[in-house]
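Predicting holo structure, cytidine-5'-diphosphate bound.
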Amino acid sequence: MTTTEQPATQATPPGIGGIGHSLRRREDDRFLRGAGRFVDDIVLPRMLHAAVLRSPVPHARIASIDTSAAAALPGVVAVVTGADLAAHNLAWMPTLSGDTQAVLATDKVRFQGQEVAAVIAEDPYVAHDALDLIDVDYDTLTPVVNPRQALADDAPLIRDDKEGQEGNRCYRWEAGDREATDRAFAEADVVVELDTHYPRSHPSPLETCGCVADVNPATGHATIYMTSQAPHAHRTLFALVAGLPEEKIRIISPDIGGGFGNKVPIYPGYVVATAASLLIGRPVKWVESRSENLISTGFARDYHMHGELALKRDGRILGLRVNMLSDNGAFFADAQPTKFKAGLFHIVTGSYDYPAAHVVTEGAYTNKAPGGVAYRCSFRVTEASYLIERLVQNAAYELGVDPAELRLRNFIRPDQFPYRSPTGFTYDSGDYARALRLAMERVGYDDLRREQAEAREQGRLIGIGLASFTEVVGAGNHKEFDIAGIKMFDSAELRVHPTGKAILKLGVRSQGQGHETTFAQIVAEELGIPATDIAVQEGDTDNTPYGLGTYASRSTPVGGAATVMVARKLRDKARVIAAHLLEAAEEDLEWEPGRFFVKGTPSRGVTIQDVAFAAYTNFPEGLEPGLEGVHYYDPPNMTYPFGSYIVVVEVDAETGQWKVRRMVAVDDCGVRINPMIVEGQIHGGLAEGYAMANMQFITFDEDGNCIGSNFMDYLIPTAWETPRFELDETVTPSPHHPIGAKGVGESATVGSPAAYVNAVIDALAHLGVRNIDMPVLPHRVWAAVRDAGGSGGGEQGGVPPAP
Ligand code: CDP
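Done. Tokens:
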């Protein structure tokens, strides 16, 4: 059910398949047949294999490394250490947050699983066997695993490699207005506080990270097949780091088996394989194992958050104060714009209208793997959305107001858009109350509240959890957004061939989101060429225009907009050719999907296919031949998708087990290009959100050993555990996007964790329970009930307010 009609819904007939058609994903055919081509499918003549030796200890000085036995193993071609790389100035590399990261450790190891040496061998089994023959002498040091302890004066210094680094603080950053926020708190009747930890998690894509580096010794050309969500940006970074001429580097990102942010950073394995290929003169493949992926590659979250919400007794929110401490691991490697040290965490004010907010964020180095990737999230929006939605829910209990009612009283109203948030975002459009009301209607909210009250009397616990999130996706604009200095725009190149078939090339890179289908639909909408006649190409830097890649749900807001714009350029040119063919003036022509005709005489027309043929065979004198163009799109603003999720759970207070009975998700991502794909994206995100709320975290023991580096400990929900989802939608177009679309890939991962947790808290709220940290494991629920009245239930705790 749709509450409003999409402005452009199905303007094209099904045979063309433009916007609003649920076309089946054309890429699925090859995936379902096992005919996809992933990095590990690539086999080149004379190819060697790399395996990486990782540190078993989290913090130690490397006294010595003896590689002689490994080097002597038949089939081993080379053993590489940090010292070898240092000779080529490649032992350290820059991170996406402007820090440095060891490629192979030279001085110290700083986390368990850190890359220490690599073996290059004729076959992968020999390479792995040889790792056991490398003898590393570690002088162990005290590990620091708690970020608060890391900031203590007497904590061991982790980054002694950095000149001038005195403690373990890696950054401090603030947003908003401290004085205005203090004033708001002074006026408050009620202040609600929450300490919570968003645990360290991992994107765990089905395909782990890897590459095949092929540097041709004769020409110096480097072709690197790589699991990359951002091939163009990676090419530039390779050129800058390795000093290779950029025109001689070609990054090919073939089919990708899921990315979720895990394939945005550059990892040591890529650098080692490329350096080895350069020095040995043969192709080198490196593909990490599942445990290597989980232990060392691109973790997410790990934010310790303290939030305070100031309210009037009538429920009006006056202000928000947040202190956040992030555990960055040994290297500050978060993928985020230079300007924002905690990503877009400062969108933490959420869907609500209040005048004042102040956010202080700090990061600490610890002896853990680096990462801080935006796991299915626009930089750090997930953590932000979780905090505000948990705070608002708790505020409702303190005030004795229904959690839905409290939200409705404080939502930014539709007439307030564009809305400037107190931390500096300009929300483009929204109708939050409509989405929440629809979700309430779908779930039968009032009846559920009655049932909850009756159940409590009978000793049964039912909880109803809400989350009304606002996301921010589609970076840039170029003024505020960059990755390692490269501005965040994106591009599309479109060529219509003489027979009317087309090829669209993009700077973004799908990892399973269905771009080959949806971007063809955009061209179909704009030019009337059937979507099935449009090939979509991404991921090869030699054959696609420059772009910043796919993460943070930016493909549709930015790459999609570039596609619209280039298609419109071609339509303008097609009009000139059509006028020539019809011997009419351009202004006398009308357009319908796929065809120009003379106003008032619909039978006198030419199809887009006729025009395409004429562009190469019969074009007007003086006009540039061909039908081809490129557009680089610099978005004027981000897009702000939103939604309201309601989860109903039953909790067994005896065992702490909880079960989802209903999950209703109303999403608004503006105009939907392919409603079926959008729903698929939401299903995936809701399942991942459920996993985070219910079962997933990567923890460390006090010695810095990583717990959760395999799928026995780090749990992935199967269809058996995953709840059933009931989806609905509203459509509030983005006013600045050329077809009104907003991104959607991450909405459900961002919005849903708070809804699940709020549901469990709601079941226990009357007992005084106000927090259980994720994952909401049965023993935590049980302990929270036992300690009812406190706010326990977590194991790692939040951060106390800053002095
Ligand atoms: O950047 P990423 O592809 O991860 O995220 P997205 O731009 O939100 O798009 C995810 C998928 O949903 C793509 O295939 C989009 O084209 C599709 N989509 C859609 O059909 N309509 C929207 N309004 C947004 C996304």
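The first helix runs from residue 28 to 32.
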